[in-house]
Amino acid sequence: MLRASLLAALLLMPLATAGRAQGTSAGTPVSYTVVDDAIPRPLTASPGDASRGRAIVANRSVGLCLLCHSGPIPEERFQGTLAPSLGGAGTRWSVAQLRLRIVDGSRLNPDTIMPPYYRTTGLVRVARAFEGKTILTAEQIEDVVAYLATLKEQ
Amino acid sequence: MKVSRSKSQSPLTLPERMRWRPALALLPVVFAASFAMAQAGADKSASDTRRSGYQDMGAALQKMQDDDTANPGMLYVQLGEQLWAKPAGAASKACADCHSVADMKGVAARYPAIPENSDRPIDLEGRIQLCRASHQQAERLAPESRDLLSLAAFVARQSRGLPIAPPDDARLAPFRSEGEAIYRRRQGQLNLSCAICHDDNAGKKLAGVTIPQAHPTGYPIYRLEWQALGSLKRRLRNCLVGIRAEAYPYEAVDYVALEVFLMGRAKGMPFEAPGVRP
């Protein structure tokens, strides 16, 4: 009895989470080049879309940004206090600098708690449904960067 | 954490859930009339900055926990009391045939502990399963099943208000270290450790939720998000799933190691089961 239900739970769990993960994860990440504290070249051929980027940032299970950050997204009442406000990010940083901060902030600050959104290596015990997948796709990273670049006010 | 919010199945059957309605409907009345039970017990020195998750909750939830007629966990305690007296298994023995309720005082505040003839710690649910298997010759109860949680809640209730007091057993040390290593290790797709949230950022808001210090003071707890009682393991699994780490299987020793570490970290804090959490 117990065996059977445990087995069922183990089998069902990855399937359930895999369903959720779809669309937010990529295959093998495209390669990129870091120059100083930035990634000058976009990860995709077509430019990012700021309004899609805003939706990603606002979505707590896609971008996850507002778990930690606050930002000028008033319809999301519950915002985090673990990280600085995203307001003014487009003034503080260039697009290329923003790109590296989202792709893998640990290259700038090894102790950062900000998740590496475009890295699949050096991670421990990743849930099966997310194994080998980046948190955001290259397209989503470009969308988010395009949105952050519009945030000029503090 | 919000990432993993799932309206999970309640282990209660329908008629039982309906019995809750009157109790819940009474809440406002009870709130008005009740006085919060003092957070009894432990002598805390001024330099002790540890906080139970209880202290991070609003007054309404604190009152719900403190008032036995409002705390939904008490319905499980009552059910546990019935199961305690009921013969079970091939041995047809009841818990009450071998234990007095008074014997259970302080037990939950002490677990996990290493049972006789073993060298590995088990938690309270594991201890109950052991008595079922070896003393009642009864089938194991499923993890998070209503009966197991109810028995655990009944036993845990007997420690309410007592200081958490892990056993002075040197054999627990390696398990405590292993638990601490898990606690400090970054894991999951989000690359976070328990310590990042519960030590370094406790008191801050993760989205709308105040991050508690993760002291296991109230388990099993009635969690409003679950609409059910749940074990400490279930809570730990929620946090693992939240950071997109592979949750350990229910029977993994890793949970017990984490529990040994967390109980040691909360030593001296008052035990409050059955707790209520958002």
Structural class of chain B: mainly alpha
In terms of quaternary structure, the protein is heterodimer
Q: What's the total count of β strands of chain A?
A: 0
| Sequence stretches where pLDDT stays below 50 over 5 or more residues of chain B | 1-42
- Show the largest interface: A-B, 33 and 30 residues
The CATH homologous superfamily of chain A:
Cytochrome c-like domain
N to C succession of SSEs of chain B: HHHHHHHHHEEEEHHE
- Bin the helical content of chain A: 25-40%
How many helix segments of chain B? Answer: 11
CATH topology of chain B: Cytochrome Bc1 Complex, Chain D, domain 2
Terminal Cα span of chain B: 11 Å
The proportion of strand residues of chain A reads under 5%
Arithmetic mean of pLDDT of chain B = 88
Account of the 3D structure:
The complex is a heterodimer of chains A (154) and B (278). Chain A is mainly α and 154 residues long. Chain A has a single domain, classed as Orthogonal Bundle (Cytochrome Bc1 Complex, Chain D, domain 2), CATH 1.10.760. Chain A has six helices and no strands. In chain A, helix 2 packs across helix 6 and helix 5 crosses helix 6. Chain B is mainly alpha-helical and 278 residues long. Chain B has one domain: Cytochrome Bc1 Complex, Chain D, domain 2, CATH 1.10.760. Chain B is 40% helix and 5% strand. In chain B, the strands form two sheets. Chain B has a three-stranded mixed sheet. Chain B has a two-stranded antiparallel sheet with strand order 1-2. Chain B is globular and about 50 Å long. The N and C termini of chain B lie close together (11 Å). Chains A and B meet through helix 1 and helix 3 of A and strand 1 of B.
Write a brief caption for the model.
With 154 residues, chain A is mainly α. Chain A is 38% helix and 0% strand. In chain A, α2 (50-58) packs across α6 and α5 crosses α6.
